[in-house]
Amino acid sequence: MFKLVQPAPKHGTVTIVGAGPGDADLLTIKALRCIQSADIILYDRLVSQDIRDLFPTETPAFYVGKAAGNHCIPQAQLNQLLIEKAQKGYSICRLKGGDPFVFGRGGEEMLALHQAGIQVEVVPGVTAGVGAAAYSGIPVTHRGLAQACTFITGHGEKSLDVDWSSLAKMQHTLVFYMGLGNLADITKQLTHHGMCADMPAALIENGCRKDQRTFTGQLSNLEQIAKQHQLRSPTLIVIGRVVELAESLHWFASLTSTNAQIAQMTA
Ligand code: SAH
């Protein structure tokens, strides 16, 4: 005599996926598979249109994006939403710009999901600090120019909690994420702590996208460049001698030269 066994309830899973900085071809195969097989997609503001175009039309996709100072859904509410959807048995693709663990709050979401007993996977993505720099002809390390690279958040609720004195002395590449709004403070602090005013520096807007704009200059004129060209988010700040290489190594601007805005400019 057979006992009637109820099928085990399906447990939902969440995959926190890095979408990279914009170019859909920079998605990993694993990221694309997850996008194609998920029951639901929850995506951020930094997930580019080219990548959103790859979402299967039949898959519900929800924008849960955040812009600086404009949190569409508070993080705690977003964590709760993920938990509820997963508890209903859905497999969720939680898609984030760049890499989810680089200034992406992926760790916070994962902790909340783990606490709720939800299974989570992570798919790393190309972070903007590497991708946008590469698409501007800037290797973040280069023999003789930079032996290391530091990723720093340029965003602070009140002031930036950064050890400026150490950063200014490091003689290696500094990459600031979310720093455009605090650009004046960043350049002032670095100069004040001893970095040369003529240190090469770059601003990269919409890195790895068709409308990428890269401007190179020096620590001393970065702010002026940002104002003059009305740079908008997402913009990355790269400071260090590796920026000198952009003039000879740039390649993306020439490939996409149909768009006049794309010219790589030296101030
Ligand atoms: N997790 C993301 C970073 C999120 S923080 C990553 O790994 O790339 C958001 C900041 O990243 C933006 O303010 C900007 O400074 C930078 N950024 C993200 N995408 C970018 C892009 N395509 N071009 C330039 N900067 C970008």
SSE layout:
Layout: E1 13-18, H1 29-37, E2 40-43, H2 49-52, E3 61-63, E4 66-67, E5 70-71, H3 75-87, E6 91-96, H4 106-115, E7 119-123, H5 128-134, E8 149-153, H6 164-169, E9 173-177, H7 183-192, E10 200-205, E11 213-218, H8 222-228, E12 235-239, H9 246-249, H10 252-255, E13 265-266
Bound molecules: S-adenosyl-L-homocysteine (SAH).
S-adenosyl-L-homocysteine binds at residues 21-22, 46, 96-99, 102-104, 127-128, 132, 177-178, 204, 206-209, 233-236.
Describe this protein with a few key phrases.
267 residues; globular; 28% helix; binds S-adenosyl-L-homocysteine; 10 helices
Q: What coarse outline follows from CA principal-axis ratios?
A: globular
- The order of strands across the largest sheet is 8-9-12-10-11-13
Distinct bound molecules: S-adenosyl-L-homocysteine
Beta-strand percent range = 15-25%
Oligomer state equals single chain
Describe the overall structure.
The protein is an alpha/beta fold and 267 residues long. The protein is built from 10 helices and 13 strands. The strands form 3 sheets. It has a 6-stranded mixed beta sheet with strand order 8-9-12-10-11-13, sandwiched between helices. The chain has a 5-stranded parallel beta sheet with strand order 3-2-6-1-7, with helices on both faces. Strands 4-5 form a two-stranded antiparallel ribbon. Helix 3 crosses helix 4. The structure holds S-adenosyl-L-homocysteine. The site of S-adenosyl-L-homocysteine has 24 residues, from helix 5 and strand 12.
Please give a quick description of this structure.
The protein has 267 residues and is an alpha/beta fold.
